[in-house]
Every structure is written in C-alpha cells, then in structure tokens.
Amino acid sequence: MTVVVAPDRPASPLRPGIFLAGGISGVADWQRDAIEHLRPAWPVVYNPRRAVFPMGDDAEGARQIRWEFDLLAFADAILFWFSFETTQPIVLYELGRWAASDKPLAVGADPSYERRFDVVQQLGLARPGLTVQADLGSACAAANRLPGARSSQGAR
Question: Residue 70's domain spans which residues?
Fold first, then answer.
C-alpha cells in the first residue's frame, strides 16, 4: 500500500486510491486506524492529515485546501468518517458535494457525533442505498467493498 500524505503529490497517477475525508484537527488520529483496515483492499490511500501542520500559516492553509480539493476529485472512492469530538463543518460540506456525484462513497459517523442524525437523513435522500456506519471498522469494511477495491474485484 502507498499512503500519499498532504501536501505530497504523486509524480504519476496512483490508482486505485481512496481518500480519507474527516476531521484532521481536534480529533483523534482515526486515519491511522483506517489505513490498517483499508490495507488489504486499497493499493493507494490519500491521507490529508499531516504529521505537523503550521496553524495560522495562510499559505499552507491554502495549499492544504487545494490538495484536498484536487485529491478528492482524483480518488476513485472516498471514505468519510465523522468522529464525535468536533462538528467538522468542512467535512460536512465535502460530503454534500460528493454525495451529489456518482463517486463511490463509504460513510460512518460515531453514534455520539452531534450531527449524525443530519448525515443519516441527508444521505437517505441523496444516496438511498448508502448505509451510514456507526463505527470506523464498519465504515472501512464498506469502503473495502466499493468499486476500485481489490475485494470488490476478486483476488488479484
């Protein structure tokens, strides 16, 4: 597995890949756990969580936002995870944007996430067949069944 971490960009396209969309500040490092769950199925993971982010640096903030914007579009699928610690308004925006597309999505929201009801209701309207998982392991298992994952195409 190759993990591409912001703000790095691959020299050549790496596919198939899944983007980890969810909180990156003020929340536990859920991405580390997700990567382990996704390892058997996804050759490439796009991880927006940097080891160190220079908060207050507008140029780096803009670079991060552009990286996420570009790689969300490039990825073959997106895993959304809403942890309980913060509201994560940008992730809600990204979910709305991509739920209105045909990009394969897997979504999970912790039962204690304050906007879980809204996520479930909105996705029930935008993507009626998509189940919002209640734990990260189940959300990753759903991601591992999406088009592009090794498990969705049989053994390679």
Answer: 2-152
CA atoms in the 13 A half-sphere facing the CB of 136: 19
Print the SS3 string covering the chain. Answer: CEEEECCCCCCCCCCCEEEEEECCCCCCCHHHHHHHHHCCCCCEEEECCCCCCCCCCHHHHHHHHHHHHHHHHHCCEEEEEECCCCCCHHHHHHHHHHHCCCCCEEEEECCCCCCHHHHHHHHHHHCCCCCEECCHHHHHHHHCCCCCCHHHCCCC
In CATH, what number is assigned to the domain containing residue 104?
A: 3.40.50.450
Distance CA 111, CA 150 (A): 29
What is the number of domains present in the chain?
A: 1
52-110 confidence digits (pLDDT tens): 888 888 999 999 999 999 999 999 999 999 999 999 999 999 999 999 999 999 999 99
